[in-house]
Model the fold of this input.
Amino acid sequence: MASSSDSNSVDMDPDVARRLFEEGATLVLLGVPQGTELGIDCKSWQVGPRFRGVKMIPPGLHFLHYCSINSPRCGNEIGPKTGLFLSLKPREIIVANWDPKEEDLDFSASKNEEEVNRIRATLRELDPYLGPYPYEVMRKWVSLTDRLSEEVANSLQPLSGRICAYSDVIPETEYRHTQDRAEQPRNDTACQSMKEGLDRLPKMKVREGTELRFSHIAKKTYPNGATPAEITQCSMDLSYALETVLEKNHGQQPLNLLGELQFAFVCFLIGDVYEGFEHWKRLLALLCRSEESMRERKDLYLGLIAVLYHQLGEIPPDFFVDIVSQNNFLTTTLQDFFQFASGPGIDAALRKRAEKFKAHLTKKFNWDFDADMDDCAPVVVELPEGVTVD
Done:
């Protein structure tokens, strides 16, 4: 989308292109500054001077994302990424105008039927300024979101409708009066300790309506009134905690948890939202360490293997060195999963699928899931009192 001529040089079957033009949705994005990084689903571009939007978008769920270039808010550097999920219907036209003050897209024009009809009537004239949907990444996008429905995406997306790479935080307490501010710790003297420095900072909270609405995963993994033996069991087998999350958040549709896993992954991989990665890890640990649920929920776990197969296929191998392999998170979590999947009472189809997935990961990443992970842990040596190491 660096220019309209570049945008239209897509190698696509003419019949497919014609059908997508006639049946596909159109995003008309007006006033987006040149140089803005903008993308849909798994691909992004720098906007050129003639850009007016994206055409030939397959109906369904999509992730639109963008960030300003030369943003005054960020010292004339690239701004933080903003994204939103859109569920598009055949031949639908969505209109948005760039708001330079907010450095964001304003979709209010889409609610103006007269404006949308005007755009529809001139769509042929607008066509040279519309970049085609990146058809070559459609298969990848579908594989990453095939379990994510519009309903689930809407329930997890912030009420503000925007998924931001950085949280929008505000002070927990607003000091509107001079006397209130005067009573706060002063910052004109040197701090005597790290704790004092942290105490001087204002307590912040995420602005209401901007937080992702992920399922809450409680730290307590056992029911009230549990005996010591039950607490131990629920700490080793997280099925109680998993079933609690399913009941509270996904009711009669437990497979929607896989949609939430995909939502969190897309937020991190494409939206640059680290909170998405943290939630993905928590969900994955919960699923992989729930032995009893694995026996009872064959379809959920067959789906989990398929979801992970595509997700791990999209992450560069060196990524694991930097983030995922810290504390051996992924390898230890999957080691528990494969151990439970080979245990008694597991459905034969699930057992076989898990064995194939294990072999695939071992070949792709050279991970050894049969090794004793404790052997790789650092050894802590306690020195006698008074002895130090320089």
